[in-house]
Amino acid sequence: MVDEQLLPLAGEPMRLLGARALYWPARQALLIADLHLGKADIFRRAGIALPRGGTVDDLCRLQRLLDTHACRELWILGDILHGPAHRAAWYQHWLGWRERNAALDVHVLRGNHDLHLPHAQLQVQIHDAVRLPPFLLRHEPMPDAALHVIAGHLHPQIALAPLRRRFPAFWLRDRMTILPAFSAFTAGIVPAPARGEQMIACVESGLVELPVA
Q1: For 55-88, how does the pLDDT look when each residue is reduced to its tens digit (9 = 90+)?
Q2: What residues does 63 pair with on adjacent strands?
Q3: Are 181 and 148 contacting, i.e. CB atoms less than 8 angstroms apart?
Q4: Of 33, 127, 30, nearest to 76 (Cα)?
Q5: Spatial CB neighbours of 52, under 8 Å, sequence gap ≥ 6
Q6: How far is CA 111 from the centre of its chain?
Q7: Three-class SS of residue 111?
Q8: CB within 8 A of 72, min separation 6: which ones?
Q9: Listing from the earlier edge strand, what are the strands of the sheet with 105-109?
């Protein structure tokens, strides 16, 4: 099991990272999807008992990736938020992380959970969809006639029967790559890949390739 894998997408050398991210060397850009800041806090306010540390742990994982790879840009492909940006503990942790990475260009593609993003004061650049040939970056995985789509939203997972667990996964489709949810506190879907598609699971920050369908 390896922690990263070179993968040409639309002729562009990219690196799949077992830590649930995609690295674009030519742009020095890290791509993640579905961070869902503060999701655990929102569930706790609704009376659902959950352990603390979800957002903090996710930001620590993100920081390790930024420290490991030369990054000028971070692209979050939707759902950076999970709901209203209450001034809870997670928000202070985010501001501390943002201050530490003040020189990093952080771009967020608006997702279905990002209704409050324009007023959240997260110190990020907000987009609906961005064309960076040969790619189209967006939140929802809808195809494009000209560009290879990189998206999130679906939280693809793989059920590995021997381990009796589900693991987040990259879903490699024709002219489309769907990233796993970066947040550790997310459910997801277990898709049935069509012919020629492939799933690559993220297992303890390593990558496990499944055969091409």
Answers
A1: 888 999 999 999 999 999 999 998 988 655 566 6
A2: none
A3: no
A4: 33
A5: 40
A6: 12
A7: coil
A8: 27, 28, 29, 104, 105
A9: 4-9, 12-17, 21-24, 29-32, 73-76, 105-109, 125-127
Do 20 and 180 touch, CB atoms closer than 8 A? yes
Angstrom distance (rounded) from CA 86 to CA 19:
28
Six-digit token string for 154: 């679906």
Q: Show the tokens assigned to 53.
A: 């540390």
Q: Which single residue is written with the structure tokens 């020095």?
A: 28
pLDDT digits (tens, 9 = 90+) for 106-148: 999 999 877 778 878 899 999 999 999 999 999 999 999 999 9
CB count within 10 Å of CB 131 equals 12
- Whether residue 13 contacts residue 22, with contact meaning beta carbons closer than 8 Å, is answered with no
C-alpha distances out from residue 102 to 26, 69, 95, 197, Å: 21, 16, 10, 38
Measured CA distances, 179 to 74, 92, 197 (Å): 14, 27, 14
Burial of 21 per CB tally in 10 Å (0-12, 13-18, 19+): buried
| Domains contained in the chain, CATH given | 4-209 (3.60.21)
